[in-house]
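Researcher: Let's do a round of design. I'm pasting the C-alpha cells now; please hold your answer until I've finished.
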C-alpha cells in the first residue's frame, strides 16, 4: 500500500539523525574493545556481503576476539529463510568453541 508522506518524512529524519550520531560516535570514540567475542555469520550466496573475508575484519577495532562463520547456502535474509541451518550453526559454535584465537593471535578460553 501507499505510505503517507508524514511517515516517509519521519523515517528519513530518524535515519539521518541516527546516521549523524553514529558518525560522531565513531569519530570521537576512544580506543576501547569489548571483552565478549564477536561471531560473524554470513552466507556465501548473499549478494550484499561480497568481500566478507576482508570486510568482517573491520570489527577487530571493537573486539579482541573475532570469528567468521560462513554458510554455504542462504541469501541476504538467511536468518529467516534458513532458520534451522542458522540454529544448528549457533548450537555447533556454542557446543564446540572453548578456545578462541584473538585478532592479535593470542588465545581466549571461553566457557
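Researcher: That's everything. Go ahead.
Model: Designed sequence:
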Amino acid at each position: 500500500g501507499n505510505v503517507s508522506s508524514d511517515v516517509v518524512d519521519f523515517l528519513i529524519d530518524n535515519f539521518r539523525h541516527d546516521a549523524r550520531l553514529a558518525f560522531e560516535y565513531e569519530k570521537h570514540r576512544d580506543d576501547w574493545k569489548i571483552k565478549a567475542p564477536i561471531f560473524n555469520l554470513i552466507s556465501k550466496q548473499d549478494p550484499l556481503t561480497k568481500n566478507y573475508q576482508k570486510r568482517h575484519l573491520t570489527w577487530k577495532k571493537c573486539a579482541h576476539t573475532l570469528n567468521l562463520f560462513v554458510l554455504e547456502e542462504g541469501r541476504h535474509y538467511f536468518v529467516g529463510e534458513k532458520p534451522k541451518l542458522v540454529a544448528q550453526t549457533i548450537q555447533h559454535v556454542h557446543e564446540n568453541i572453548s578456545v578462541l584465537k584473538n585478532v592479535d593471535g593470542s588465545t581466549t578460553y571461553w566457557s
